[in-house]
Amino acid sequence: MPLSPEIIDILACPKCKGKLEQVSAPEGFACAACNLFYKVEDGIPNFLIEEAAPWQKDKQATPGHV
User: Fold this and answer.
1) Is residue 65's pLDDT more than 50?
2) Which one, of 10, 53, 1, lies nearest residue 30 by Cα?
3) Quick count: other Cβ atoms within 10 Å of Cβ 29?
4) What value does the mean pLDDT of the chain take?
5) What is the C-alpha to C-alpha distance for residues 2 and 62, in angstroms, rounded to an integer?
6) Is the pLDDT at 64 greater than 90, yes or no?
7) Three-state SS annotation for 3-52
8) 14 exposed, middle or buried (CB, 10 Å; 0-12, 13-18, 19+)?
9) Confidence of residue 66 (pLDDT cuts 50, 70, 90)
């Protein structure tokens, strides 16, 4: 079940509580303030900080942990 736009609007980064940007490829949410990427797998967002990947807005998420 996809997340509704109302839910997406209130999501915040679990680490810094900043605004998240929805990303389509790879599917997930990015935090520009923390430079972290939270993957969506099988329609379920994973907001565990220790499983987030490094993120640069101009590049895709890179594998590995922060």
Assistant:
1) no
2) 53
3) 24
4) 87
5) 24
6) no
7) CCHHHHHHCECCCCCCECEEECCCCEEEECCCCEEEEEECCEECCCHHHC
8) middle
9) very low
Domains of the chain, each with CATH number or no CATH:
5-54 (2.20.25.10)
- How far lies 56's CA from each of 4, 6, 16, 40, 43, in Å? 25, 26, 16, 17, 23
Does residue 12 surpass a pLDDT of 70? yes
Q: How far is it, in rounded angstroms, from Cα 35 to Cα 3?
A: 22
Which tokens in the block code for residue 11? 């999501």
Prior bond to 26 cis, omega within 30?
Answer: yes
